[in-house]
Amino acid sequence: MMTDVMEQSGGPIRPKAEQPAANGSEPAVSTPPTVGNVGPAELPTGTDEPAASARILEIRERINEIDNALIALWQERAALSQEVGATRMASGGTRLVLSREREVLERFRVALGADGTQLALLLLRAGRGPL
């Protein structure tokens, strides 16, 4: 399950494979942006200082690794949650257990504040679908 992310313009940001073509026949393939004399292979870091730029690229590499782990964990959690719901309903139980959802929301709120609550809501929806 994927939730569209909204651009500042208000339109959804879609993965490259989902980008519609200008003429509607084939998906458009976007190319990495270029800035000045910087080509697609060189990512802008916001600084011209070589040491700072190198460090920023190292940090971004680690961020990308973390993002990939988060995506994998998100998908695993959603699949497990869906299995819990299917098992519960197959045995005559309810579609969801509100006390469990409140417990998850509270744990994320305590650990991460208001953003944690929003994250927990998204996680719960990914596992059970919208209410």
Task: Give an overview in words.
Helix 1 crosses helix 3 (about 115-130) and helix 2 runs antiparallel to helix 3. The two termini are about 15 Å apart. The radius of gyration is 20 Å and the shape is elongated. The protein is mostly helical. The longest helix has about 40 residues, at about 50-90. The chain has a two-stranded antiparallel sheet with strand order 1-2. It is built from 3 helices and 2 strands; from the N terminus they run E-E-H-H-H. The protein has helices spanning about 50-90, 100-110, 115-130, and strands spanning about 5, 10-15. The model is unreliable at about 1-30 (pLDDT under 50).
Q: Determine the number of helices (DSSP H or I, runs of at least 4 residues).
A: 3
Tell me the β content.
under 5%
Main sheet characteristics: 2 strands, antiparallel
The value of Rg in angstroms is 20 Å
Helix-strand pattern:
EEHHH
Roughly how much helix do the residues carry, as a percent range?
40-55%
